[in-house]
Specification:
alpha+beta, 4 strands, 17% strand
């Protein structure tokens, strides 16, 4: 039950970010924002390929950016963003009205 509650919580925060803040979807765009230092939070789906996941984690470690491992698949992450396609990773540039960047 706790995992489901936190999953619903992150989904609502993520939908608020997509409406009021700025976020970037996709592997190459996430790497670009990490290299430029614009990313503030990176979300990675549970079924992201291992090589991509480790490369994103490495860039995030260098940029000192928080990583959140999304409990759902890439279909769930795309749906949580309000899109109708898959999304394996997501970078939050500006949280907007959401408190997704706060520690829980």
């Amino acid at each position: 039950m706790v995992k489901k509650a936190t999953s619903e919580n992150i989904n609502t925060k993520l939908s608020l970010v997509m409406r009021s803040g700025k976020a970037v979807l996709g592997y190459s765009s996430v790497l670009k924002t990490l290299r430029n230092g614009k990313a503030r939070l990176v979300l990675i789906s549970s079924n992201c390929p291992t090589l991509r996941k480790s490369q994103i984690e490495y860039y995030a470690m260098l940029a000192k950016v928080e990583i959140y491992l999304f409990p759902g698949t890439n279909n769930d992450l795309g749906t949580a963003c309000g899109r109708f396609h898959r999304c394996s990773c997501l970078s939050v540039l500006d949280a907007g009205d959401s408190d997704i960047l706060n520690k829980e």
